[in-house]
């Protein structure tokens, strides 16, 4: 899918904050976790948008906001031109027929006390689409579609392997023929050989059913293989977004360059020549994120401007129109950051919360 494809989902300045309360009887909000803090991006019909970043950067929270599982604190999310943040309960139920999710844990996402046929058939029951023999027929068709034996309709999840359980999750997500599927690290809990099978299955299903994916993962090689475009998140914000070859070929944000330097390289000669960018310090607390650029306490290119002024997500130099980065001093092609260190000290990563009497 090209960059000019039709926009299926538009995320505009979305914030999601989780309140922290203290007190025994009268609970008072004393702080907030800024899980997602001003994210804007587009998801185009038929493409795969990869979202990467360290644990706690907000990528899974953003995915749950897009699927309507988390109400947003502020901002707007449009799906086919409709703002889903203002939908009624009935409107959300209709919306969720078009947006489904594949969860990370193939063991925890399936009820061990229910049979597989019942689990996959839940979407039909919830939306009143089919029952009885018709529902069983559709469930068995879905099982065959994802590579499971339809005769195992009455088995329990414990009778399947991890890869087979994830296929059950895929079948459940596809039951209502959604337009958007959010894959929240769908292969991270699987063996490497099984990962390849599930990824190839998702790729085949996208071609066959015309699906649009949001693919969240830590493995940068997996993201490169499956994605058309990639967004890199850090501490609740998007630091860089671009077509996959542009981002992997010429990263502009120092954080993106550091992530890519940590990725495994299959060619031993190339791996020996590559230099690892080691970031100093810890990830700041999302309760009290640093001012200006949130990456500046760990950035090897940070200057005083990075503390005083938050960078905008814009095109740098002669980059493609859809290659944007939020950095005042973007990485230049061929620039080596491995021997540089953060120019600005990080004072604290864990703010103290005020005491509240009960």
UniProtKB/TrEMBL annotation:
PROSITE patterns registered for this protein in UniProt: ABC_TRANSPORTER_1 (PS00211), ABC_TRANSPORTER_2 (PS50893)
Pfam families per the UniProt record, alphabetical: ABC_tran, oligo_HPY
A GO molecular-function descriptor: ATP binding
Key word tRNA processing present: no
Residue ranges annotated for the ABC transporter domain, each copy included: 9-260
Keywords: ATP-binding, Nucleotide-binding, Transport
CDD domains according to UniProt: ABC_NikE_OppD_transporters
Family stated for the protein in its record: Belongs to the ABC transporter superfamily.
Protein name: Dipeptide ABC transporter ATP-binding protein
């Amino acid at each position: 899918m090209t960059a000019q494809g039709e926009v299926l989902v538009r995320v505009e300045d979305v914030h999601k904050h989780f309140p922290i309360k203290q007190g025994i009887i009268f609970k008072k909000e004393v702080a907030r976790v800024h899980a997602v803090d001003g994210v804007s991006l587009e998801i185009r019909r038929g493409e795969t948008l990869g979202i990467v970043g360290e644990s706690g950067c907000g990528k899974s929270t953003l995915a749950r906001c897009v699927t309507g599982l988390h109400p947003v604190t502020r901002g707007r999310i449009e799906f086919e031109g409709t703002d889903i943040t203002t939908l009624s309960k009935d409107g959300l139920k209709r919306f969720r027929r078009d947006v489904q999710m594949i969860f990370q844990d193939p063991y925890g996402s399936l009820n061990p006390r229910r049979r597989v046929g019942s689990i996959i058939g839940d979407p039909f029951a919830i939306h009143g689409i089919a029952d009885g023999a018709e529902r069983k027929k559709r469930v068995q068709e879905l099982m065959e579609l994802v590579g499971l034996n339809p005769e195992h309709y009455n088995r329990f999840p414990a009778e399947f392997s991890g890869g087979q359980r994830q296929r059950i999750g895929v079948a459940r997500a596809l039951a209502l023929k959604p337009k958007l599927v959010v894959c929240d690290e769908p292969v991270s809990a699987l063996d490497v050989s099984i990962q390849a099978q599930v990824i190839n299955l998702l790729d085949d299903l996208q071609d066959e059913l015309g699906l649009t994916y949001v693919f969240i993962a830590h493995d940068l090689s997996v993201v490169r293989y499956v994605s058309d475009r990639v967004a890199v998140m850090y501490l609740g914000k998007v630091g860089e977004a671009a077509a996959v070859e542009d981002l992997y070929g010429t990263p502009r944000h120092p954080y993106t360059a550091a992530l890519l330097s940590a990725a495994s390289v299959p060619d031993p000669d190339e791996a020996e020549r590559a230099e690892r960018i080691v970031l100093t310090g810890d990830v700041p607390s999302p309760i009290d994120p640093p001012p200006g650029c949130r990456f500046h306490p760990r950035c090897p290119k940070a200057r005083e401007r990075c503390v005083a002024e938050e960078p905008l997500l814009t095109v740098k130099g002669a980059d493609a129109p859809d290659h944007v980065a939020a950095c005042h001093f973007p990485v230049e092609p061929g620039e080596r950051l491995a021997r540089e260190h953060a120019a600005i000290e990080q004072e604290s990563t864990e703010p103290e919360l005020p005491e509240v009497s009960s």
